[in-house]
Specification:
Length: 316
DNA sequence: TCCCAGGTCCTAC
DNA sequence: GTAGGACCTGGG
C-alpha cells in the first residue's frame, strides 16, 4: 500500500482489500467511487482520503491550523493498523475449515484503528438499526454538527462531530438527524467525554477487561446505552483490543451453526442460541485467542455474503 | 403496508 | 440471573 499526499507517495504493506475492509460493518463513513478498481473515498478525522488496493491519496483536509491529527503518514499507518501482519494473524488461528473458508472469501480484510469517540457513538447509533440506516444517521450527524472539509459532486465531506458539539445539541436538533431514542445515550456520553469524566484514549493503556468495564454502562455508570456488543465493537475497531469478539444476531447464528461442539454441556441448538452473550463471547475468545476479533470479522463477512447470495445480490 | 434491524434498558419474577 | 416488552425510525 502507498500513501500519497500532494503528489508524494509512501508505501504500506499488502495484503489489503478496501472493499472487504470498508464494507464489513466496522466503519460507516466510506463509499465506493470505482468498484471495478476497488477505489473508495472516506472521511477520517480531519482528512478526506481516496483509497485503492495499494494506494492512499490525500484528497483534502480541514483548514483548521490546530489539526489534531499530527503527522499524516503516521496517522494513516495507525488508522490502517500497520502493526497488524495479516499472514501472522491468519496462522495464529487453530485448524478450522469454516474460518479458513471465510478468510479465503474476504482475504485482505483489515481491522482499522479508528477514533474511539467516533467509533463509540457510531455503534450506539447502530442499536436496532440496519447498516444503510446507520450510515444515514452518521452522515446526518456529521452534516449537522461536524465541520465542512471540501465540496464534492455529492455535497460536502464533513468531520465527525466533536464531543462538545453533541453535548451542546438539543433534543430537537438531535432528533432531526433520525437517531430516535438513541439521542439520550449520545448526549449522555458526549457530556461525560467533553467534561473529561470519561477519557476514551486512556483506555488504550488498560487491558481488555479493564477497558471493557469502563465502557459498559451498568458497570461504569460513565456511559448510558453501552452494552457488551457496543463495548466490544469499540474495543475492537478503535482501541485495537483484537481479542474482543462482538456478538450480533449474525455471529450468534454463525456460532450456533458452526461451533455448537464448543458448548458440550448444551444439548441442543435452541439452548445454544439462547446462551448469554458473555458465555458465548468468552468461549470464542478462548478458541481464537489474541486475534479473536479478526476471526469474528471474517465470520461476519461470510454470513453477510451468504445472505446477499440468498437475496440475489452480488457481494460488494 | 409491514417487518425488521450488527441492542439496551427496565421491570417483574 | 434472566425472560420479555418497549423503544424511534427508515430501508427493503
Amino acid at each position: 500500500m502507498q500513501i500519497e499526499t500532494s503528489g508524494a507517495v509512501t508505501s504500506l504493506e499488502l495484503p489489503f482489500n478496501p472493499s472487504f475492509t470498508f464494507d464489513c460493518g466496522q466503519t460507516f463513513r466510506w463509499r465506493p467511487v470505482d468498484l471495478d478498481r476497488n477505489v473508495w473515498v472516506g472521511t477520517v478525522g480531519e482528512y478526506v482520503l481516496e483509497v485503492s488496493q495499494n494506494n492512499v491519496k490525500l484528497i483534502s483536509q480541514t483548514r483548521d491550523k490546530n489539526n489534531a491529527s499530527g503527522n499524516f503518514i503516521e496517522f494513516v499507518q495507525k488508522y490502517f493498523s500497520h502493526c497488524d501482519k495479516l499472514e501472522e494473524i491468519y496462522s495464529s488461528f487453530p485448524e478450522d475449515p469454516f474460518l479458513e473458508d471465510a478468510i479465503n472469501r474476504s482475504y485482505g480484510l483489515k481491522i482499522l484503528t479508528q477514533d474511539p469517540w467516533e467509533c463509540l457513538i457510531s455503534f450506539v447509533c447502530s442499536i436496532n438499526k440496519n447498516i444503510p440506516s446507520i450510515k444515514t444517521i452518521i452522515r446526518n450527524l456529521s452534516l449537522r454538527f461536524g465541520r465542512a472539509i471540501v465540496k464534492d459532486s455529492d455535497g460536502r465531506f464533513h468531520t465527525f462531530p466533536r464531543p462538545t458539539d453533541l453535548a451542546r445539541a438539543t433534543e430537537k436538533e438531535l432528533l432531526e438527524t433520525g437517531i430516535g431514542f438513541r439521542w439520550r445515550y449520545i448526549k449522555f456520553i458526549a457530556e461525560k467525554v467533553s467534561s473529561g469524566e470519561l477519557d476514551l484514549e486512556s483506555l488504550r493503556a488498560l487491558d481488555f477487561n479493564q477497558a471493557r468495564n469502563h465502557l459498559i454502562s451498568r458497570i461504569s455508570r460513565k456511559t448510558f446505552g453501552v452494552g457488551p456488543k457496543v463495548a466490544d465493537c469499540t474495543l475492537l475497531f478503535s482501541l485495537h483490543k483484537t481479542e474482543a469478539f462482538p456478538i450480533d444476531v449474525w455471529i450468534r447464528r454463525c456460532v450456533v451453526k458452526n461451533y455448537s461442539n464448543l458448548f458440550v454441556s448444551q444439548s441442543n441448538q435452541t439452548k445454544i442460541a439462547h446462551l448469554t452473550y458473555e458465555k458465548m463471547s468468552t468461549s470464542m475468545r478462548e478458541r481464537f485467542g489474541k486475534y479473536a476479533g479478526y476471526a469474528q470479522q471474517y465470520m461476519y463477512m461470510s454470513m453477510l455474503t451468504e445472505r446477499r447470495i440468498i437475496r440475489g445480490k452480488a457481494p460488494a
